[in-house]
Amino acid sequence: MRAYILFSALMVYFQTESVMFCDICDCQEISEPLTGVVVNCSFHERVLEMNPILPDASITLDLSKSNLTSIQPVSIFQSESLVELLLNRNFLKEINLLSFNLPELKQLDLSENELTHINPDSFNGFTKLEYLNLASNKFTVTSQLNFNSLVNLKEIILDNNNIGDEIETRSLFDEQGYGLPLNIQSISISGVNLDNLNLEYFKPVDNTLRKLVISNNNLNIIVKLPQRLEYLDYSNNPINKITTEELEPLVYLKELKLNGLDVEEISKNVFATLMLTNLELKYNKKLKEFSNLSFGRQLLSDTYDFYLENLSLKGSNLSTLDESLSVLFVKVKRLDLQQNPWVCDCRLAWLRKLPIAPDLIDNFRCSSPDNLFDRRIFDLAEEDFVCDTSSWEESQFGISAGHVLYLLLALVTILYLSLYNTTPKDNLRQK
Ligand SMILES: *[C@@H]1O[C@H](CO)[C@@H](O)[C@H](O)[C@H]1NC(C)=O
Ligand SMILES: *[C@@H]1O[C@H](CO)[C@@H](O)[C@H](O)[C@H]1NC(C)=O
Ligand SMILES: *[C@@H]1O[C@H](CO)[C@@H](O)[C@H](O)[C@H]1NC(C)=O
Ligand SMILES: *[C@@H]1O[C@H](CO)[C@@H](O)[C@H](O)[C@H]1NC(C)=O
Ligand SMILES: *[C@@H]1O[C@H](CO)[C@@H](O)[C@H](O)[C@H]1NC(C)=O
């Protein structure tokens, strides 16, 4: 009760005396990378109700996680200096951007709200916008999103909206479609329910797109990928085969994520033309064959052009790896081979010599033979990695027996020849 009276009193006070954002929120003057004030109202509930005034030199306004259900009053969103506006993680059902006047705005985060529509015209005043995050809202095929006026947009995030069907038919790059500018550098369409994409879908941005996130969809093909990509995430799609041709053109690619696919095999040369620094192949539960030639044959003899810093094969179905890979694997700074059904026999003894980070060894364990089941590979000694002893000894014995036999045969032959050779001579001499 007392709190309520206090609150009402405050409201009356605020209605008569104007209040500054910095009286309520956390304000910080910064000079890097821009000079100005960062106004942080994150986790401040009901701050807009007080109709606070933005400081003149505001560059960032953070209103995230503030339980906002509407943007009222809009007079707050008038600023000649604001560059970044964060409205993520609220409960906004609609937003009238038309009434905003933020000509310098470069970054707008509206993710994790409940938006269903945004009027295409409402972006008209945002010609400088470079980054737009609309992830995890309630956009659907009826939303008809269009970004034609965002001519300087570099990055868009549309994750976790049910718009896949629409992206398939209304192109992201067509003016009648989503109207993204053709010099856009980064697109994220993870978890949007894409079932099928035209193989040539990304052709309009073939030379410009640097980053593509298309994970968590239902794609069973790898579309033709823009050749300037530096970052690609195609994880969690029902892809059952990766061919050399699909990745070959991506010579600028640095980071590749192919987690949670349906592939059974990584075949030779798949990564041969790439110069990756980061490769994730996690939770490919069916993956049981990783070719020692996946990075190509040449790298195995000259590792100079092998730049991989992080490689994860965690959570797959690998039971063995060829030792020829060791020249590459020793160069990887963070190698994760955990949660695979490793068969700890003589073929895998080399794994113990890899410089694996201490936090990546606990689940690096044997699955067989029975006596080593669930033992940590780095707790074992070289002698523990034995190959099937009976057949091994038999073949050892076979070889040595063969040698003895061969020697005996040779001896007999020499003896016989010397006898045969001398006898006729002796006979002759005797004649
Ligand atoms: C605002 O503060 C929260 C912590 O209270 C922090 O997580 C967030 O990064 C800050 N926002 C900005 C823009 O600095
Ligand atoms: C937002 O509302 C929830 C419950 O509805 C509450 O637990 C939370 O503290 C509120 N957040 C803020 C920043 O007030
Ligand atoms: C490798 O992984 C570490 C830790 O996850 C990360 O900090 C680093 O940036 C990664 N390196 C590359 C080249 O991606
Ligand atoms: C993993 O491989 C084994 C044989 O090596 C096979 O029996 C099993 O079905 C595979 N698991 C999956 C999920 O494909
Ligand atoms: C690759 O592995 C296979 C099977 O283990 C082996 O026969 C072959 O010699 C290896 N190739 C190279 C180049 O080491």
UniProtKB/TrEMBL annotation:
<keyword id="KW-0472">Membrane</keyword>
<feature type="domain" description="LRRCT">
    <location>
        <begin position="340"/>
        <end position="388"/>
    </location>
</feature>
<dbReference type="InterPro" id="IPR003591">
    <property type="entry name" value="Leu-rich_rpt_typical-subtyp"/>
</dbReference>
<dbReference type="Pfam" id="PF13855">
    <property type="entry name" value="LRR_8"/>
</dbReference>
<keyword id="KW-0677">Repeat</keyword>
<keyword id="KW-0433">Leucine-rich repeat</keyword>
<protein>
    <submittedName>
        <fullName>Leucine-rich repeat-containing protein 70</fullName>
    </submittedName>
</protein>
<keyword id="KW-0732">Signal</keyword>
<dbReference type="InterPro" id="IPR001611">
    <property type="entry name" value="Leu-rich_rpt"/>
</dbReference>
<feature type="transmembrane region" description="Helical">
    <location>
        <begin position="397"/>
        <end position="419"/>
    </location>
</feature>
<dbReference type="InterPro" id="IPR050328">
    <property type="entry name" value="Dev_Immune_Receptor"/>
</dbReference>
<dbReference type="InterPro" id="IPR032675">
    <property type="entry name" value="LRR_dom_sf"/>
</dbReference>
<feature type="signal peptide">
    <location>
        <begin position="1"/>
        <end position="18"/>
    </location>
</feature>
<keyword id="KW-0812">Transmembrane</keyword>
<dbReference type="InterPro" id="IPR000483">
    <property type="entry name" value="Cys-rich_flank_reg_C"/>
</dbReference>
<keyword id="KW-1133">Transmembrane helix</keyword>
